[in-house]
Structures are given as structure tokens and as C-alpha cells.
Amino acid sequence: MFAISVFTFFIFQVIPNGDPALRLAGQSATPQTIAAIIKTWGFDKPVYVQYLDTMEKIFTGTVVSYSQQVNVLSQIQRGLPATISLALGAGVIWLFWGIVLGASSAVRAGRFTDRLLGVVALVGVSTPTFVVGAVSLYFFAYRVHIFPLSGYVPFFQDPWEWFMHLVLPWFSLSVVYIGFYSRVLRSNMLDALHEDFVRTARAKGLTQRRIWLNHVLRTSLIPVISLWGLDFAAVIGGGAILVEVVFNLDGVGEYAAESIMTLDIPPILVIVMYGAFLVVLVAALVDILYVVLDPRVRLNG
Hints:
Layout: H1 2-11, H2 20-25, H3 31-41, H4 47-60, H5 72-107, H6 112-126, H7 129-143, H8 159-192, H9 196-203, H10 208-239, H11 241-247, H12 252-261, H13 265-293
């Protein structure tokens, strides 16, 4: 996280037209105004001092954006409910259907069903999320009026409207992951069929159904769960930028997109560190979950 914070901060120092003093001063600012802003905000200090000052403000909760001059942490907290709602719903959908389609392809490997699901997965992986979002928004919200056009409604304000506003974003974000996860699970399950523990299970006379469910599928889920944890953390950390922008969800991802467009360093730095922390945390939780999924992974004690 330290390395990520340093890299993110310093890379925006060398971007052309990235001087925050010029953006704060405006287009018609005088040299005296720019000089005053540089002095007030500490832009005349060495870069490493600016970095330390920014990090201190982040950990004390007083960091302010350059463009809007509002507290960054309060803006992120305001967008978190929308982003978490999007990530939770989409995460459940892509994990469930990824497992169902992947297992179905593995069981019917080489048959017509397997080839058909492979084509569907390839189409899903190849289609950008913003294209899926725009097309679904046009047909199901603008033309047919089944779902609302855009926006986010808090769950506790109206649970039904919360659900209706998120159905299309959930679908748009899940399509790519479903195709990818189904292919990964299919490959893992077919590889697991040649493992020694599967041969042992067959020698014991276990049914094919029990072998597929209790031995092949359970073992093959380990890398899928690992991927899901990292992807889920990345989505909460602003990874669903395109989906949030298309559907105007006003979440962390959309806030990150606005900050990138204006080269606003404090929000970008906070969001990147926030996403990195979630990835580290979820990765640790997935390591613990390995013990439950894989009997071969046990702590000595």
C-alpha cells in the first residue's frame, strides 16, 4: 500500500498540464493569484514534503480535493452505498452463474451444450461492459420502460426501487465475469478428473454425481473463489467505473472517473489506497477460506 501510494502520487506530478495550482486559479487568473495559491496549498514545497502532507491529511480525515475543495472521505462515504450495492448484487450473480455454466460445460465436455456455452462465454468476455450497459439501458429502460433509466435509490428509502435501479447495472457488470469464471471452472474441473483422489474415489465405488460434487467441483472452486474475492474487492474499490458512469449511480467509481478527468490527486490517491486495502483484506480472507474448501490445506498444530 505504501508503494502504491507513492507511485500514484508521483505519477501525477509528471503528467503534462497536471499543475493543480493552475486548475485552482482558473483560466483568467493572474500570476499573483497563482503564486498565492501555490503558497497557500504548499505546492512550492519539495515533492516528498507534499506527499507526506497529503498522507497526513488522509489519515487524519482532513484531505480536500483540489477541484471541488470538499472533504474527500465524506464524498467517498456518500458514494459507498451505491458501489457496495452494485458489487454485492453483481458478485453473487456472476459467481452463481459462473459456477452453474462452468460445471455444466465440464460435465458435458465435448458435446453440443459445452460448445454452445463456450460460444456464449466468449461473447460475454469479448463484450465491453459499457456496451452491454448502454444497449440494455436503451432497450429495457428507454424503449420498453421496464426499468428506470438511471440513478440510485437507497435501500432503506425504497427497497423495491433500489432493486429496480440496480438490475441492469448488475447484469451489465456480471456478463464479462460470468463468461470468464465459467471457462476457468470448466478447465479446473477437467484437470481435477485426472487427479489421484478422483481415481481413489472411483475405486471406492462412489457414484459419478458424488465424485463430481464432493471431489471435483469442491477442489476446482478454490481458484474461482480466489478470483472472486479479488474481483469483488476491485469493484468496491472503484473498479466498476464504466458501469457507474453509464447508469449514473453516483458511486465511488463515478467519483474516481470525475477525479481522473480533472487530474485531482487527493481523491485519486484515496480511492487507489482504499481499493488496495480491500484487495489485501479480501486476499487474506480467501486464504482462510482455503482451509474450508480444500482438505489438503491445514494448519499444523
